[in-house]
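chain and backbone:
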Amino acid sequence: MDCLVCHEQTGTYKKFPAGAGNPVSEPKVFSGNKKTYYPPDWASVAQSVSRPGRKNCGTCHFYGGGGDGVKHGDLDSSLMKPNKALDVHMGTDGQNFDCTRCHSTRLHKIAGRIYSTPASIDRKSLIEDDRTPRILCESCHTASPHKSHAKANDHTDKVACQSCHIPEFARENPTKMRWDWSTAGKKEDGKLIVKKDELGKVSYSTKKGDMKWEKRVKPEYFWYNGSIKHLTVKDVIDPGKTVKISEPVGNQDDKKSRIFPFKVHTGKLPYDKVNKNLVIPHLFPKGKDDKDAYWKGYNWEKAIAYGMEYVGLPFSGEIDFVETSYVFPTTHMVAPRESVVNCSECHTKENGLLSKLSGFYMPGRDSSSGINTIGWAVILLSLCGVVIHAFGRIFTHGRKEED
């Protein structure tokens, strides 16, 4: 990363893929895509410096993880010039916000870095404090964003705005939902394999194994206070369970937590069977003679031994593959109001969006014998009151006629 990545506006400033973050000083072909990279025109690049635009941010964030939509289901190239049906804030036929409209900065500290500075620590609106970083929905919309007395306003203390206003992610471009490294290494007639699915995305490659892509994906929902817990290669894992490489932090009793939508990416990764920890393989060959790199010799044991030695961690030499999951908060691709999640999608007994969240009572989804008894008692008492009142009216009406 350097200043020009975020601030140059010519679109010609390119890094060499295997250049450790540096552009080339002379034309050079990258073996991975057979593309020639040229030295920047430093004068025009430097003179183009301006505030970051959507393309500056999207060049990295839309293509993170090695391709368009690989990581974030709500961030891909479709947001470069979206319509408001895809995102009401970024739509070029609507508000046409750039990323910096919400991800405001102060001395290059960017609002919304959930790992080091969770946005939900100080839940203020710009009405309360106009110096508040513009990153939470309530920063602009306040904690009562709907019409006065609207029932939806009662949800904002426990339900994030995104949970209702982002019914699906990857609505135009597909996103990678699964990556199985355990199947990598297969060849046909000694040649590398690359297969694509009906969406035009790579579904299998010798280098990376099986991959699954999906469009119009409904998020999964968790309690979330703005922080993400991450696993490290030093942590002991239980290979009998799905290993959560990352997971949201929060619970229903935490005042800062809200029910929040996530993309959950699953996969299979190698782990050390003896030490019971995930491992770091050496993938990309440093040269033609680098036989230890997986993408050269396709030997997991050698690639992992090299990688673990490089970072100074032990490796037993015995490996297997374990199921894993990884979460990505979903906060872009905000849908128009007419496309929000319907109340019945959550408040229902079967297959509701919040069916996996337990420990609290939700009308329409849950039932309680005590609450049901009280409810029926109120109904019966009301009915008795109506009947008594009716008889009273009939009786007094007859008395009035006699008088």
Summary: The chain has eight helices and 17 strands. The helical segments are 3-7, 42-47, 54-61, 137-141, 161-165, 294-297, 300-310, 369-402. Residues 228 and 248 are 5 Å apart (CA to CA).
